[in-house]
């Protein structure tokens, strides 16, 4: 079986959720030496400096299959208007072509599989960039028709795809994501944690949010809840709140909220955190706070559990499904509930330890090996 991976997303910039998923799936799937693998991408002047990011896949046997005479951005703009064939750029030899980012272009040879992570652009469109929303509206439904199988990452997301796109249930396969336990574990040494804390000027204990700074992550309510926590507990030493992650969009109000509540001295914005620093930052946190308004999966939740860090998350969307009984769950629209959950972990050591152990036990069922096994079975069934 010859499998082609469309890896253009790795050449875009900092690695966030979708790229993390693609990275781990390619690494696991390509361990099977009975198949051959190729990496499809447009090589442009802009992307050339990032080609080294593909080296780890080359060492596991993946072969470059690049196109140097066309531009990926232009192709994305054109394919919804003019059905330019993908096979014209990348050939017709692959049995399966795997796309990782919602889309399937026209004219792909062989069987086509794509991953749809969530339906936020339909369910809560106000939290999605206009440019992204328009592209998804133009692309996703057509892509679902072109795809031979649609992969999604939770039962919740499957139900959303069926609800909004009217896709037959049998065309959709649920593949829960996994945790890279080589990175996300609880064995980091104190000096490693201290080094990362010093880099970001974090002193003492801290509560952590890690993710993109954008509306649907509900960061303003985290800030409100933290401010309430300070007001209710003036006689103790208050851990700082670390908001880690790169700026997404509509983030100005997040910084403004901190100023309005006069807690600038207690809130730390780190900016983008590298994949090597993220698990260390998680490991050192008092607790991980992730009351997102909408998630297709919520990978940071299980990553924090894998690091031995107790989790506060939402009782809605996929987060309720994915976290099981291993997290303190709150109504994400009620900042007072978030405050009470923070206090529970702050003042009840037994509860803190209980959820730390629950998290360790729960996260064991989320592995990239299992995810890759589900995906490989899909490929085999299609051929």
UniProtKB/TrEMBL annotation:
Ranges that cross the membrane: none
Source species: Lacrimispora amygdalina
GO BP terms, alphabetized: lipopolysaccharide biosynthetic process
UniProt xrefs under CDD domains: GT4_MtfB-like
Pfam families linked: Glyco_transf_4, Glycos_transf_1
Keyword set, alphabetical order: Transferase
Origin: domain of life: Bacteria
Name of the molecule in the record: Glycosyltransferase family 1 protein
One Gene Ontology term of the molecular function aspect: glycosyltransferase activity
Location of the Glycosyl transferase family domain: 203-354
Lineage per the UniProt record: Bacteria, Bacillati, Bacillota, Clostridia, Lachnospirales
Ribonucleoprotein as UniProt keyword: no
């Amino acid at each position: 079986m010859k499998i082609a991976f469309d890896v253009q997303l790795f050449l875009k910039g900092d690695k966030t959720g979708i790229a993390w998923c693609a990275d781990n799936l390619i690494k696991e799937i390509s361990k099977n030496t009975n198949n051959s693998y190729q990496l499809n991408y447009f090589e442009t002047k802009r992307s050339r400096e990032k080609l080294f990011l593909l080296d780890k896949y080359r060492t596991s046997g993946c072969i470059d299959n690049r196109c140097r005479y066309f531009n990926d951005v232009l192709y994305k703009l054109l394919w919804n208007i003019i059905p330019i064939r993908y096979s014209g750029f990348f050939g017709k030899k692959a049995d399966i072509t795997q796309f990782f980012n919602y889309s399937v272009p026209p004219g792909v040879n062989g069987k086509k599989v794509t991953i749809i992570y969530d339906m936020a652009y339909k369910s809560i469109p106000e939290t999605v960039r206009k440019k992204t929303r328009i592209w998804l509206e133009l692309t996703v439904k057509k892509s679902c028709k072109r795809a031979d199988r649609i992969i999604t990452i939770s039962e919740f997301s499957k139900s959303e795809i069926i609800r909004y796109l009217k896709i037959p249930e049998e065309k959709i396969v649920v593949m829960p994501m996994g945790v890279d336990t080589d990175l996300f574990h609880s064995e980091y040494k104190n000096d490693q944690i201290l080094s990362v804390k010093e880099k970001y000027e974090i002193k003492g204990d801290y509560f952590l949010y890690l993710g993109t700074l954008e509306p649907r992550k509900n960061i303003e309510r985290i800030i409100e809840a933290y401010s309430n926590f300070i007001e209710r507990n003036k006689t103790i030493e208050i851990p700082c709140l670390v908001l880690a992650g790169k700026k997404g969009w509509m983030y100005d109000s997040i910084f403004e909220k901190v100023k309005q509540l006069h807690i600038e001295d207690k809130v730390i914005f780190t900016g983008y955190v590298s994949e090597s620093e993220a698990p260390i930052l998680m490991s050192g946190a008092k607790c991980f706070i992730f009351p997102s308004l909408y998630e297709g999966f919520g990978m940071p939740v299980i990553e924090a559990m894998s690091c031995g860090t107790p989790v506060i998350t939402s009782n809605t969307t996929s987060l309720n499904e994915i976290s099981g009984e291993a997290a303190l769950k709150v109504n994400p629209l009620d900042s007072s509930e978030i405050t009470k959950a923070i206090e529970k972990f702050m003042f009840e050591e037994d509860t803190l330890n209980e959820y730390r152990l629950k998290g360790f036990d729960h996260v064991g069922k989320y592995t990239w090996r299992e995810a890759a096994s589900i995906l490989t079975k899909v490929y085999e069934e299609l051929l």
